[in-house]
Amino acid sequence: MPSHRMPSEADIISTVEFNHTGELLATGDKGGRVVIFQREPESKNAPHSQGEYDVYSTFQSHEPEFDYLKSLEIEEKINKIKWLPQQNAAHSLLSTNDKTIKLWKITERDKRPEGYNLKDEEGKLKDLSTVTSLQVPVLKPMDLMVEVSPRRVFANGHTYHINSISVNSDCETYMSADDLRINLWHLAITDRSFNIVDIKPANMEDLTEVITASEFHPHHCNLFVYSSSKGSLRLCDMRAAALCDKHSKLFEEPEDPSNRSFFSEIISSVSDVKFSHSGRYMLTRDYLTVKVWDLNMEARPIETYQVHDYLRSKLCSLYENDCIFDKFECAWNGSDSVIMTGAYNNFFRMFDRNTKRDVTLEASRESSKPRAVLKPRRVCVGGKRRRDDISVDSLDFTKKILHTAWHPAENIIAIAATNNLYIFQDKVNSDMH
Amino acid sequence: MEFKLEAHRIVSISLGKIYNSRVQRGGIKLHKNLLVSLVLRSARQVYLSDPCPSLYLAGHPGAPALPQQPGESVAGPPAGWGEPPPPAACAAWPEPEPQLELPAVPEVPRAGDAEPAATVTGAGDTLQGGEAEAAEAAWRRVEGPRETAVGGSDVFPQGFGAARRPCGCPPGDEDKMSASPRVDGCCAPRPAGPEPPVPPLVCPRKRGAEGVGGGPADFPAPGSTPLKKPRRNSEEQPGGAAAAAAQEEEEMETGNVANLISIFGSSFSGLLRKSPGGGREEAEGEESGPEAAEPGQICCDKPVLRDINPWSTAIVAF
């Protein structure tokens, strides 16, 4: 659903997240807004619009703030959205910017009471002399109204910039991570949180790594993982100690000395970590690769996929234009057989773990007419160039796909390309294999 | 040589990024600055590991290695970054070309400095007293923390120390961790301009260190210190009150990032003054330098100097 407004920086999508059923898709943007899309139920009457996503609700989640004590502006950009498992008719989600997490409740109203005795239809008080009889108000159907209200504000928990939030499988707690600390919150308690990870050194001069992402295990409510800027993953068990500074497992791959460069450290920084739906594996993204890790093997990933290795020789330029700091996310499909991540030039990549085949696709208006089939793209790195290949030097590095999401059950993906959201459905293979 | 050019370029780019991060919306991004500082460290190691004999001339042949101050955790460059250049040197910073040659002035026995010396005198007239005071104050503040980067503190200083060897002593072949940072003052021009207004507080420990970091060099008049202290106090009080009142009890400690710029500001121009020799190439970087400039053109090459200008000019403006 491309945005039809004039593109401005506030419209840049900063996070995308399906809810647990895939019925709802939430996006956050740099302007602090959240837009929720809802999948239209498939109907025989309108077969062409079956299963498409339409805007369900839009609200302003965060506003820019100014910390006067530190003379710091706090960006309103939504860094992450996480849905809570649905427990009643309402939907709830957590949204966070750099400093504050908010719990939003989304409710529907499709009926309204009519026939009050003391008020008229506009709500004005009736002249009591005109009331001659009593009536019981009845609920009449009305146009669907989606109401969003902030139920909790979890503030002042973080000194550094929040990079991730994750809801626990116990549905009562969640964690938020910033560069140096991870806090555990109870969803109902806003005035305090437990610090469960603290990697801040006593002397900041000794700082060598920061936390880059974190996630709770999908099934074991005591386990969580966090990734670091050094490329390592730490699996922690909250039962072991109150402060989980000692990891239960450390996942780290030794650096390949032949690839050493000025930028080795930057490109090994993990930008995203995701547990598989099964809970058996973890997926990490660093600048050039995605890796699959087995929780039972700490020494190295079990699979490594090159996202855009042709950039390895261009790291200096990418450092200069800041692209090397781009934080790409990664995603599993519902059956954990395919992994997906974004790249430049509005390309995104999918890797089939079983067949070991990969594909590069492009999210652009030109190539995405409704019901068009996405054509695989190819980046040529010299040598023979096929007709539709793109050369590395003509890649547009301003068009980056940092945020992607995969429907939990079906082959539907949401791709955020700057200020446009693309939703692709695989109608042919709508069931997961 | 290409590696050195590349390293040089990377250092200047990195410093620019660190500077820009301070004016970025949303505050300093710790992660990005940490990564930049790591790159900076690598690039500096490559750049400074060149054992060109004529590169560094002794400004302070007698400067001994400073013993670590108690409580200091970093083998930082001691106070002996060389004689603080006269305030006139700081005036040079706002100017593009002459500016970069000026900081080398204090290093008298330098080859080819006659011209810059003249320029200094001329430029010195433009400096206002306040600016000089502020520049000295900034210098002093730089000295305090002793570290040069988040996470890079244990390397930068040695890098500095390694660089500041008298000619003929290749710095690369000794244990850097234990190298006493003998700063012979050859590349110790002062950072110029007013003290950058970094919002986060430098922690009290750093301030204390700064106080005792006299060292062999003669530091600017104590009168400059009060310029900074009230500033610190004013920063501290609200902070202290906040700590008492708010749940958030600490500042985001990124003050050392600001110091990095100052430190690098001073040394970088010194690096530029090196007369290039046939340096050994360190096979660290794999990128090939884009410039085709002959080694002999490094110092005088206007495009190269222009690369450095924006950030140093920016610091002054800041």
Largest sheet, spatial ordering of strands of chain A: 1-2-3-4
Query: Which whole number gives the mean pLDDT of chain B?
Result: 47
- Cα shape of chain B: globular
Task: From the alpha carbons, calculate the radius of gyration of chain A and give it in angstroms.
Answer: 24 Å
Describe what you observe in this structure.
Chain B: Residues 236-246 have a biased composition (Low complexity). Chain B: Belongs to the IER family. The complex is a heterodimer of chains A (433) and B (318). The mean pLDDT of chain A is 92. By secondary structure, chain A is an all-beta fold. Chain A has helices at 264-268, 315-320, and strands spanning 13-18, 24-29, 33-39, 53-60, 65-67, 72-74, 80-83, 91-96, 101-114, 138-154, 164-167, 173-177, 181-186, 194-198, 211-216, 223-228, 233-237, 249-251, 272-275, 281-285, 289-294, 303-306, 330-332, 338-342, 347-352, 358-362, 379-380, 390-391, 403-406, 412-417, 420-425. In chain A, a hairpin with a 4-residue loop joins β16 (223-228) and β17 (233-237). Helix content of chain A is 3%, strand content 40%. The longest helix of chain A is centred in the last third of the chain and has 6 residues, at 315-320. Chain A is globular. Chain B is mainly alpha-helical and 318 residues long. Helices cover 47% and strands 0% of the residues of chain B. Chain B has helices spanning 2-22, 30-48, 87-92, 97-101, 114-124, 129-143, 156-163, 204-212, 225-245, 255-272, 302-317. The longest helix of chain B has 21 residues, at 2-22. The radius of gyration of chain B is 19 Å and the shape is globular. Mean pLDDT of chain B is 47; it is low at 53-249 and 264-318. The A-B interface holds A 69-75, 77, 98, 156-157, 159-161, 163, 179-180, 203-210, 212, 229, 260-263, 265-266, 269, 315-316, 319-320, 322, 325 and B 6-7, 9-10, 13, 17, 25-27, 29-32, 34-35, 38-39, 42-43, 46, 73-74, 145, 147, 150-151, 153-154, 199-200, 203, 205, 238-239, 242, 246-248, 250-253, 256, 284-287.
